[in-house]
Specification:
By secondary structure, the chain is mostly beta strands. Helices cover 12% and strands 32% of the residues. β5 (57-62) and β6 (69-72) form a beta hairpin.
């Protein structure tokens, strides 16, 4: 099965955590992984996340501001995203070709504005607040089911 190339980080240190978990078996054909990227303490300088075009769509939730969410997909080129000094994102990475939603919802840049689409991204983000990453899996799975 296709395995997307992991995105790159400008640096790695103990203050930043990236984690992935596998979806439940019923979603294994459509979901590559659930993921979390977060700071554990404020950073001394901005963090630059190097996102690579991998043909995957991600459902992205900002856990610092649950109104900020989006459906992301890079089209043709890598992008460096300045995430600042504190951040906490979780998401669902779909395999290429799985997204059947509105193509107009896809964003190919930094997601920093409130979500106004029809998917329950904001409600899901609110339900995930203050849970540890492993406990979010049922909520993340429900976005795809």
């Amino acid at each position: 099965m296709y395995s997307p190339v992991p995105d790159g980080f400008g640096r790695r240190d103990a203050a930043i955590r990236y984690a992935e978990s596998l979806p439940p078996p019923a979603l294994a054909q459509v979901v590559h992984c659930f993921w979390e990227l977060r700071t554990l303490v404020p950073l001394e300088e901005d963090f630059h996340y190097h996102a690579l075009p991998d043909a995957c769509v991600n459902l992205l939730l900002d856990q610092r501001d649950p109104d900020i969410a989006g459906v992301t997909a890079l089209h043709t080129k890598a992008t460096a995203l300045n995430l600042g000094r504190t951040f906490h994102y979780v998401g669902v990475q779909l395999f290429p070709g799985v997204w059947q939603g509105d193509r107009d919802e896809l964003i190919d840049r930094y997601v920093g504005t409130p979500y106004r689409g029809r998917l329950p991204l904001v409600a899901t983000s609110r339900r995930c607040l203050r849970q540890d990453f492993a406990a979010m899996a049922p909520e993340l799975a429900a976005l795809v089911e």
